[in-house]
Amino acid sequence: MEVGPESRYQLTAAQLDAAWNERTAAAMVASPANPTGTLLSAPELAELAEVCRRRGGALIVDEIYHGLTYGVDAPSVLQVADDALVINSFSKYFQMTGWRLGWLVVPSQLVEPAIRLAQNLFLCPPAPAQRAALAAFQPETLALLEERRAEFGRRRDFLLEALPSLGWRIPVQPEGAFYVYADVSEVTDDSFTYCQRMLDDVHVAITPGADFGTYRAERHVRVAYTTGIDRLAEAVRRMARAG
Q1: Considering 104, 136, 168, which residue would you say is the last residue of a domain?
Q2: Is residue 34 within 8 Å of residue 179, measured between CB atoms?
Q3: For helices 127-136 and 139-162, what crossing angle results, to 10°?
Q4: Which of 240, 198, 242, 194 minimizes the C-alpha distance to 218?
Q5: What distance in Å separates the CA atoms of residue 106 and residue 78, rounded to the nearest whole number?
Q6: What is the CATH number of the domain that holds 157?
Q7: pLDDT tens digits, 181-220
């Protein structure tokens, strides 16, 4: 589905309803989203769920970046629709990427099919990963994770101020995850080549919009703020030199 800044790069209920056809079984959205960092509000989630319900399909919501929001809370679709499916993981907020541990919330009628599917993909998560997940819920761990979330927020704020100096536009301020999705059409009409040049010439790695789809991909790049502000500042200085 083609989504742009006018809908904060999120699928709308009107778009979904118009696109639904006899082959459609479900709609899948992410909130907060990668690469845009944008959220769906509770009313927007409810509207999407209603379209899926009326059309006889399912709404699947990727909530993997829940917890990583700045100045706003990300509502869960389960607050407004008990028939939705939720995908979540320990990878992002809990910073357990590589432990391959997550969870799935499904309506009661889908529990048995989900179990059958899981049994043919994996038997159970490794015991060490389960132990680590339990430790992630300890108060001292949660306090540390909140400190890290605050640091992500400071990095985001730095980039929102610094990136426009490169001639980039940020049409929608990210509210979650750890990415900025920027419009670079004032400096290039080919974001893939632009990203390659930044990597080759000044050793800064940013991601072209083509990695996330085809709609206006050539005019967008994604920047991840998963490194410190000092390194982000150095990256901005290098890209400014490269022009």
Answers
A1: 136
A2: yes
A3: 80
A4: 194
A5: 10
A6: 3.90.1150.10
A7: 999 999 999 999 999 999 999 999 999 999 999 999 999 9
